[in-house]
Specification:
single chain; alpha+beta; 3-stranded antiparallel β-sheet; 6 strands; elongated
């Protein structure tokens, strides 16, 4: 992130690539559920090397992220963007809870409350819950939450 970027830029960025499903509220804090940090604050005013912020999206089915300042970036970004991805996490590799062999492609939101419900394509066809309860397995901490589909 460029040092003149604001927390609202980071909030929009995270929503667009990883979180947005239904326009939920979000907040940045220093210590989890502490006092909110003003979303208009610039990165240069908030972050010091080694500092971590907490970010929460959706206060009903909350997704919590920790954002850590590793180093101040002084270089150029592609197209002069305020935020640029330089690396990403790998796609999730979750095995089907029913057959235990194939990669899961959907999550049954009814069964996930019992720590189950990750299903491969074949097992999903025979699953006891209604297909309307399925959400796709996506590269996001919101996989299986609310109505998040990764779009």
């Amino acid at each position: 992130m460029k040092e003149n970027a604001r927390l609202e830029d980071l909030d929009t960025f995270l929503r667009n690539i990883w979180l947005e499903c239904c326009g939920h509220l979000s907040a940045f804090t220093y210590d989890g559920y502490g006092e909110d940090i003003n979303i208009k604050s610039t990165i240069s005013k908030i972050f010091e090397p080694g500092l971590s912020l907490s970010y929460m999206y959706d206060f009903g089915d909350t997704t919590e992220l920790t954002i850590k300042n590793v180093e101040i970036y002084k270089g150029v970004t592609e197209g002069n963007k305020k935020i640029q991805i330089v690396s990403r996490n790998a796609d999730p590799a979750v095995i089907c809870d029913e057959c235990g062999k194939k990669p899961a492609t959907v999550i049954c939101t009814e069964c996930q409350y019992e720590d189950a419900g990750w299903l491969c394509k074949k097992c999903a066809q025979n699953h006891e819950c209604d297909e309307d309860m399925f959400l796709p397995v996506v590269n996001s901490p919101r996989a299986g939450a609310c109505g998040y589909t990764g779009d």
